[in-house]
Write the structure tokens for this entry.
Amino acid sequence: MIATSYILLIDDDQITNFVNQTIIEKSEVPIGTKAVITGTDGIDYLLKCLSNHEDLPYAILLDINMPEMNGWEFLEEFSRLDEKIRNEVKVYMVSSSQNEEDVKRALSNPNVTDFLHKPLNSNMVRKVFG
């Protein structure tokens, strides 16, 4: 069930999406989740929300390393979306990467709110979304 306020999870690993959904649920933050497994699916989902006048997600948790469309490519496409989407939806890069260049690159992107290191935990969720 997606609450009025929800987070869109974009990660090619379905187990990670499931675990993150469970962590978010157990963090007792009143926010729902929706998960997709590709960056392309994420862009399509946002466009569908806009065209159907559905609620946009409050935020996106975006993995960097994915096949088909990685997190960087998603951000390129996201920057071309309607201003309403870019202004309303916060994007958080979520990665297990310890590469400082990835962190700097993410934080230098005007569409990225913050960089979160995997694994996600309840304290992170409460801090960011509580």
In short: The beta strands are 6-10, 32-36, 59-63, 90-95, 112-117. Residues 19 and 89 are 22 Å apart (CA to CA). The mean pLDDT is 93. DSSP finds six helices and five strands in the chain.
